[in-house]
Amino acid sequence: MSTQAERTEATRGRLISTARRLFAERGFAAAPDWLRATAQAITSCGCTAGCPSCIQSPKCGSGNHPLDKQGAAQLLACLLRGAAS
Ligand SMILES: [Zn+2]
Hints:
This protein has helices at residues 4-44, 69-84. The protein is mainly alpha-helical. The protein has one domain (4-84). The N and C termini lie far apart (48 Å). Bound molecules: zinc ion. Zinc ion (ZN) binds at residues 45, 47, 50-51, 53-54.
């Protein structure tokens, strides 16, 4: 027989597990839209090699090196082909 504290902890664990699953499912469902928006931002940007408007990140630990704008666009296209199937 379990104690009230054990039952409360088990309920808490189930709630956290459910919340994580729901969060992951929402992210999975939204991913194609996010990938398409990112691909659009990259391909419509007027720069040639990547800039803060498309592929550079202020949080990049390596100072945004190396970057490959064409590679980013190709990777997103590949992911979107996978998302469509
Ligand atoms: Zn750019």
